[in-house]
Amino acid sequence: MSITYKNSGVDIEAGSETVRRIKDKVKSTFTKNVLTGIGGFGGLFDFHEATKNYSHPVMVQSIDGVGTKLIIAQKMNKFDTVGMDIVNHCSDDVLAMGARPLTFLDYVANETLNPEIMEQIVTGMVTACKKSGISLVGGETAEMPGTYLPNEHDIAGCITGVVEKDKIITGENIKEGNIILGFASNGLHTNGYSLARKLFFEIGKFDVTDRHEKLNKTIGETLLAPHINYVNPIVDIIDSNIQINGIAHITGGGFIDNIPRVLPENLDAEIAKGAWPVLPVFEVMQELGEIEENEMYRSFNMGIGLTIIINETDKEKTLEIIKQHPEYKVYEIGKVIKGNKKVILK
């Protein structure tokens, strides 16, 4: 028998079928600044045109992966929400620097390319990109038999944003007395899934189709809730010339590790734990593992996906802008006090 690429494990025809399925979806995210379609060796984006209203544009870039949340997607055979996750997670990362996301590149690796699953993943990416005006300018699908197990995937992405140089948010303007506003999450986002899987599937002996009395969805549906994208309300706040002194995306490391990333050396963030409703999924996990409180706040977002630190005098104006985005819930969750760059839970 003649050996071919296909019978060694890589199906080029499946790749062509995947492109056929996603081509128009991807194109629907293009702005006038995208100069190429999919299928080339690189994506072209007119950065000059996109930044013509900036005096000194600075590129902000970030790259990340979905992580072990993909194991839940595999168990559920549902992959659209993890496509949304990667775009939204990366968007919120560059947003933390004050940047407006412009373009996204994806990378999806698997053991065997399944065009239907790829269509689900890309559909999720497209949905997330269109929500915030991001162009999905390109990507790569890698079929690697022997590297991944059957039906196993890895999803990563790289985002590019732009910010005016004198409006980069670094945290250096944070002062004692600043207030901390927290934007609600809808679940774990993309963080803490190694621990969550251990709690639900090993300790709790649940399956993804099981229900818990404190959760209004199945375990799998609860854990697949997509990462929220906070770009639109934050960009509106920035465009209104309100000074945001610091933004912390609550990712891996929770409150304990992420908020200090933007704090000056001589200040602490004092967080009032009762200032927002902790989501039931976190309460369930804490009970299952008898987990100490500090570990919960270090592992999970606890119901707050993004925090902004502002001057107290800007509070009312900021809240008025956020009201124009009714899908987002925001709470005053703390304040900045003298200290040594850490989070105090009270």
Description:
The protein has 2 domains: 6-167, PurM-like, N-terminal domain (60s Ribosomal Protein L30, Chain: A); 179-345, Alpha-Beta Complex (Phosphoribosyl-aminoimidazole Synthetase, Chain A, domain 2). 34% of the residues lie in helices and 22% in strands. It has 12 helices and 10 strands. Strand 2, helix 5 (115-131) and strand 3 form a beta-alpha-beta unit. The longest helix has 17 residues, at 115-131. The protein is globular and about 60 Å long. The N and C termini lie far apart (71 Å). 41% of the residues are buried. The model has no long low-confidence stretch (mean pLDDT 93).
Count of discrete structural domains: 2
- Give Rg in angstroms: 21 Å
End-to-end distance, in Å? 71 Å
Please state the average pLDDT score. 93
Strand content: 15-25%
In CATH, what is the homologous superfamily of the largest domain?
A: PurM-like C-terminal domain
